[in-house]
Amino acid sequence: MTLAGVLSQLLQVALALALAPLLVGWVNQCRAWLSNRSAPPLLLPYRTIRKLFTKDAIVAEGASPIFRVTPYVVFGAMCCAAAIVPSLATDLPFAQAADAIALVGLFALAACSFALAAMDIGTAFGSLARAARCSSASSPSRRS
Length: 144
Prior knowledge:
With 144 residues, the chain is mainly alpha-helical. 69% of the residues lie in helices and 0% in strands. It has 5 helices and no strands. α1 (3-34) crosses α3 (65-84) and α4 (100-120) packs antiparallel against α5 (124-138).
């Protein structure tokens, strides 16, 4: 583990975090073009993130700490996933953990956290969203 490896690892994660909304905007544009609709602006996800950072958090009365911790768990899992996939350099500190099983495990951790947070509230809407998310993730042919 060298200083250059650590710096390239940090640069890789920062670049992935900075460009992820741009990729979402591009996918939304392509999806709109394929549906013969007018495409949203490419930088719309950045504006949405800025708008969401200015809003206050609203938490239900019966929410446990699982619901409050879930966004941090999902964000951390996605940052770790971006860190273990070598995209800028190969001499990375997380190179020992870079395999498909670890990547699938991180994605499963994020999906299970979402499902637990949806069930934690105890409303029908949370369970309905969890069921829709889990069914669309398990069968790619049913996506709309």
